């Protein structure tokens, strides 16, 4: 059986677009593990700067690598980073939201103030802070986006968590002997899950942008890892001579980020009953990648 | 109002304190042996020890932190580990590029976002409005570095109107050339930030259109559009002020990447270079200056918002 929220998501044009493109990117990443048209790292000087044509559908770069294959392999990195960042953001978000909603009053308020402060830290600056000590890597991107966006998730989820916690059925559960931890898992988290999943989708969009930006700056993917941001940096050096080749990685990133944003918007419409009745006005979040 | 300013000011100070501690912990404490890290693996133990001595890393952590913060209060942001140059002086020099770039970007973002955002709201449910919204949504997903590359392709490579890279060595002594070289970078950041801001403007306008005072004005005989423009726009202005802090953070982040792309000698490029060479003393002060700036802007924005919103003024 298809769950109701999924059908509702599918019914909105934006949600459908988001879902299809995101699945396509994930599928591409999976396929690239077994097959790409060419070996993405194999250079062939004789074939450098080929225009888009058969068999190099999107052309080749300065060392004759096939751009389509590079993009397909780069999807792996994107999936890895965005899923990793999503997991970290979930952990940070749940921990901070629970600390900010369910603990003693002084603790709640300290955490709330802390979250308000941390939210001002741009993800990119967090990433640069980490890489100045441990050097750049994809893990830096994961940690930076995870922490940066986790704080954002905490801020959105905390009031929701508090509202559910004060509702009668949770009170009744507590009265019948459930420990706070049990009620967190059984009642609170399932009830804030919709808010959460929407944020997660947006945080993955931020992760894709951050990976591209940081890899471009040299603090993300290493030279041997296939990455869309790295490809942008590579092709940029020849922009005066071969201006059109930078289009492909840029379009790929834009499409992926757009899809994740729209998926988040669509999920929000599909899961938030108040939005459905008002005729939705959605908003992607206020976080700086 | 004064009470609010005091409370908000306390939060600002707490924010500065927390960020300075976080930066200090990350750069000085978590890495373990900072001297070894800076000196690299090839340094002899004696060299590492000398470096440790000169950085004051043998002293208690709290004293090191107090030194750093105390120095900042005296206007001393430390000296570069590699060149020995004063970080504060270099920051001031680089700010001559980054601050004008930021102001130009913000202006462009607002100039794009306000008219198009209001237009998108007025044309809601019509094809033009949908197209504007889709356009904004798409532009907001564009990586800023790629937006810059595409503008270079169009305006430098094809049309040859603007320089693709660089900043005149003469600096602001030749203001025409300086502005010319900042135009494409500012346009890049302005367009991407403007697309995000535009969506705020659109939803603020829509919200204003539903407000009683706009509907009353319309009922008294103004057309709906006129009512919205005459009475709704101030409310929209208010909501722009709220997200301004966010925009500033976005512009700072954008300038880090864009200064790299256009090889502009600004603060962002300085930070990237120092992170690359692990000049931790510089990175530490630069990060504090940047986050401090974001926090101070957030503080000012909240105060201004409070001061100009009549509803909040009465409540205070």
Automatic annotation (TrEMBL), chain A:
The chain crosses the membrane at residues 12-35, 79-99, 111-130, 136-154, 192-219, 239-263. PROSITE patterns: ABC_TM1. Keywords: Cell membrane, Membrane, Transmembrane, Transmembrane helix, Transport. It is a multi-pass membrane protein. It comes from the Bacteria. Its main location: membrane. Residues 75-264 form the ABC transmembrane type-1 domain. It is found in: Cell membrane. Belongs to the binding-protein-dependent transport system permease family. This is ABC transporter permease. It comes from Microbacterium algeriense.
Automatic annotation (TrEMBL), chain B:
The keyword Membrane applies. Residues 95-305 form the ABC transmembrane type-1 domain. Its main location: membrane. It is a multi-pass membrane protein. Keywords: Cell membrane, Membrane, Transmembrane, Transmembrane helix, Transport. It comes from the Bacteria. It is found in: Cell membrane. The chain crosses the membrane at residues 101-123, 144-162, 182-201, 233-258, 287-304. PROSITE patterns: ABC_TM1 (PS50928). Belongs to the binding-protein-dependent transport system permease family. This is ABC transporter permease. It comes from Microbacterium algeriense.
């Amino acid at each position: 059986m298809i769950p109701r929220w999924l059908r509702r998501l599918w019914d909105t044009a934006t949600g459908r677009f988001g879902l299809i493109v995101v699945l396509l990117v994930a599928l591409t990443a999976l396929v690239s593990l077994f097959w790409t048209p060419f070996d993405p790292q194999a250079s062939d000087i004789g074939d450098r700067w080929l225009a888009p044509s058969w068999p190099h559908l999107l052309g080749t770069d300065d060392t004759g690598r096939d751009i389509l294959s590079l993009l397909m392999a780069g999807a792996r990195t994107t999936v890895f980073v965005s899923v990793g960042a999503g997991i970290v953001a979930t952990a940070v978000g749940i921990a901070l939201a629970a600390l900010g909603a369910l603990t003693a009053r002084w603790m709640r308020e300290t955490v709330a103030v802390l979250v308000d402060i941390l939210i001002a830290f741009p993800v990119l600056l967090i990433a640069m802070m980490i890489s100045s000590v441990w050097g750049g890597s994809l893990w830096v991107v994961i940690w930076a986006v995870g922490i940066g966006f986790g704080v954002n998730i905490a801020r959105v989820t905390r009031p929701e968590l508090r509202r559910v916690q004060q509702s009668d059925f949770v009170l009744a559960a507590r009265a019948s002997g459930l420990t706070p931890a049990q009620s967190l898992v059984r009642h609170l988290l399932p009830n804030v899950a919709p808010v959460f999943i929407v944020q997660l989708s947006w945080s993955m969009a931020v992760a894709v942008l951050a990976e591209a930006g940081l890899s471009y700056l040299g603090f993300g993917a290493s030279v041997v890892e296939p990455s869309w941001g790295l490809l942008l940096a590579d092709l940029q050096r020849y922009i005066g001579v071969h201006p059109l080749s930078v289009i492909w990685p840029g379009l790929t990133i834009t499409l992926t980020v757009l899809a994740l944003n729209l998926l988040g918007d669509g999920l929000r419409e599909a899961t938030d009953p108040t939005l459905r009745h008002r005729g939705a006005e959605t908003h992607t979040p206020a976080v700086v990648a | 109002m004064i009470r609010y300013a005091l409370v908000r000011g306390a939060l600002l100070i707490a924010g500065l304190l927390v960020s300075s501690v976080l930066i200090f912990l990350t750069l000085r404490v978590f890495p373990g042996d900072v001297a070894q890290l800076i000196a690299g693996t090839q340094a002899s133990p004696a060299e590492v020890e000398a470096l440790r001595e000169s950085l004051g890393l043998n002293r208690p952590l709290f004293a090191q932190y107090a030194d750093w913060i105390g120095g900042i209060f005296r206007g001393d942001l430390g000296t570069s580990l590699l060149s020995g140059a004063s970080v504060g002086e270099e920051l001031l020099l680089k700010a001559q590029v980054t601050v004008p770039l930021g102001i130009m970007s913000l202006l462009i973002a607002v100039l794009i976002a306000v008219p198009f955002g209001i237009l998108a709201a007025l044309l809601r449910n019509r094809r033009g409005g949908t197209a504007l919204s889709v356009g904004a949504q798409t532009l907001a997903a564009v990586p800023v570095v790629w937006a810059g590359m595409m503008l270079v392709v169009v305006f430098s490579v094809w049309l040859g109107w603007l320089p693709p890279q660089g900043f005149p060595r003469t600096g602001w002594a030749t203001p025409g050339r300086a502005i010319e070289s900042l135009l494409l970078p500012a346009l890049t950041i302005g367009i991407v930030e403007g697309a995000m801001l535009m969506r705020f403007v659109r939803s603020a306008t829509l919200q204003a259109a539903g407000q009683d005072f706009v509907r009353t004005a319309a009922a008294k005989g103004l057309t709906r559009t006129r009512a919205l423009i005459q009475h709704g726009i101030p409310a929209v202005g208010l909501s722009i002020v709220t997200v301004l802090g966010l925009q500033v953070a976005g512009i700072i982040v954008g300038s880090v990447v864009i200064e790299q792309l256009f090889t502009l000698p600004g603060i962002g490029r300085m930070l990237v270079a120092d992170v690359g060479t692990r000049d931790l003393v510089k990175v530490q002060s630069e990060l504090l200056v940047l986050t401090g700036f974001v926090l101070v802007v957030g503080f000012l924005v909240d105060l201004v918002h409070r001061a100009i919103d009549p509803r909040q003024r009465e409540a205070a």
